[in-house]
Amino acid sequence: MSANELTQISVELDADGFLVNPDDWNRDIAIQLAAELGIELTDRHWQVIDFCRKDFKETGSVPTLRRITKVGGVPTKELYKLFPKGPAKKVAKVAGLSKPTGCI
Amino acid sequence: MKKLLILGAGTAGTMVANKLYHTLDPDEWKITIVDQEETHYYQPGFLFIPFGIYGKTDVIKPKRNFIPAGVEMIVSTIEMIEPEANRVRIARDNRYLDYDYLVIATGTAPHPEETPGLEGDEWRKSIHDFYTIDGTMALAKHLRNWQGGRLAVNIVDLPYKCPVAPLEFIFLADWYFHEKGMRDKVELSLVTPLPGAFTKPRAAKLLGNTLEDKNINIVPDFYIERVDPAAKKLISYEEETVEYDLLVTIPVNMGAPVIGKSGLGDDLNFVPVDKHTFLSKQFDNIFALGDAANLPTSKAGSVAHFAVDIFTQNFPRYVEGLEMLEEFDGHANCYIESGFGKGILIDFNYDVEPLPGKFPLPGIGPFSLLQESEMNHWGKMMFRWMYWNILLKGKEMPITAKMSMAGKWA
Lengths: 104, 410
Known about the structure:
heterodimer, A: about 100 residues, mainly alpha, two-stranded antiparallel ribbon, disordered N terminus, B: about 400 residues, alpha/beta, FAD/NAD(P)-binding domain, 3 domains, 7 helices, 24 strands, about 25% strand, globular
């Protein structure tokens, strides 16, 4: 657990780079968390992030890719373009949500 | 008379019927259970059928053998749950069944039609599954005559029933082809959306090493979009491909369609419930147990068993307006067949990942945790008898509903 100095994020991150305290999240921090992953956020990214945050608030769990596609309306293929290599984890990270459990 | 209606007479539903029949006063309660099938399948046994270890008769018995005489059993499709009206419509005679309390235990089922290319001309030819009785029987027949090549086991998506079964399948395949003297003609691959062999770190590492020792490839982080059955290729959302000669698929798992139709499910038709009490998040007289619930733990018989133990202690209190005392901790206990007559045991819950150590089971154990032993294999083989004769009938099992740290090396 360390504050990440490289990108001047002053919030606490866990070993996998997830926010320790979800209340620390704001849009600027999302931009920095994304940059850390080499992603520049576009409107389409924000659509996904906003959906996930709203859904998390309502259901209490991090939405799966299937759910982002079915309910959030962004095709899975596009999710892989927006957040390459493991979109489920990356979206959760940038949106300031907890790590997806994978349900096993 | 108060009415308790149970939907589904699988592992969870049958155990609930047995336990509550003996707990609730029969002069005050009428218990009814509905299922669309007459036959109870011992589903853990499906894994052994492709390799000729079990046959069909080892895994089937009539459901009625396990339902107490005082419980009404109706064999029918369930058409609609109407929670606002506290009733369920069934296909048989177009009847309505009223209830005071409803237990949903309709399970989960594979849906190959959700993945393009699975269910075409090659289904049950070069593409097989082992989570259904027809599928596992067809695969047994196919393997008997198979001349070798690339065998890929692919997990389509999470969650799926019995998370360790694909690993067990591939371990048993390794053993089977060794025995047939053709292991050198078979290339085995596990193609999974997970980053490794399992989600929980210590088990993933151990199982990953076991795969390597057995010369089984793992293709991690592979999220399949479609199959090209003519070219015999799996294609991921990232356009990566895996070629195969024989594909064993673990298709998308979904809850019963009636759950979705009735507005009681999430996007996969699993019922959102409180993870400690199984009470529906929408209705205070509906519970969901077993695979039908959207619990953040394994979809597995052991979880259903522990969950039912907790639920049936709570239910008589709940209906009297008392607080539910027992809280489910997500306990799962899985014997993993690792081939060559050995097995691995894992025991974990919502918060504690599988750890190494010893598992003390009174009268039978101890078993080794997170390492291979012959004893673990015998534990698994013995379990079929326990399932039919003790577990389903709701009798006492020598294992606690909540996970214990006894014997575990933390």
